[in-house]
Sequence to fold (228 residues):
Amino acid sequence: MVRNWVGQWRGIAVAAALVVAGMQQATAADIQSVTQNEPPVAASGPWQIRLRALGVITDDKGNVNGIPGSDLSYSDTVTPELDISYYFTDNVAAELILGTTYANIHGEGTISGLGKVGKVWVLPPTLTLQYHFTDFGAFKPYVGAGLNYTIFYNQDAGSADALHVKNTFGGALQVGFDYMLDQHWGVNFDVKKLFLEPKFDVTVGGTNLTGKAKLNPWLIGTGVTYRF
Fold:
């Protein structure tokens, strides 16, 4: 009788093993079929563009050489800005920002009587090398540092007889983040500090003077980003 029970249990065990094996094969086939039928997800490319509204906030500092107590102030502005980034790796990228704005220059301190000395347009292309942190899902913060070359054009003298602000190099620091809505689109917030102190020549009442405009602007921007 014991042998009969043993034989029956062996038969049941074998049958169960065959059923389980069959189910595993069927499940594997189903998973493979579903995987094959799913459309592939396109990987993000190395390029990224951002369009931002940019606030330009300058330091109100400067001086005219040879005039004690002289100071300068500059108008703050809001302007559109475009930047283009290229990712060498998931973490390392280079960014070039392109935008232009203007600055009204006012005499302050002992030269406040001059009022608006002039107006210049500013083109400050800036190249930064960035490190992007990738451990926070859709939230992608970054830091960067780089070089700026600022071009001053369409320079108009106000109360001065003549004004010439010289093009100059400067350093740049950066911090910001992208929040990706999907694999391509996202929103961006970015802050840059430019170290920008151009020299200038100015003629007032027939007297030629020189000085330094300590702009050192903060560039604070927000907008949309597209990765492709």
Q: What stands out?
A: Confidence is low (pLDDT under 50) at residues 1-10, 12-21, 26-43.
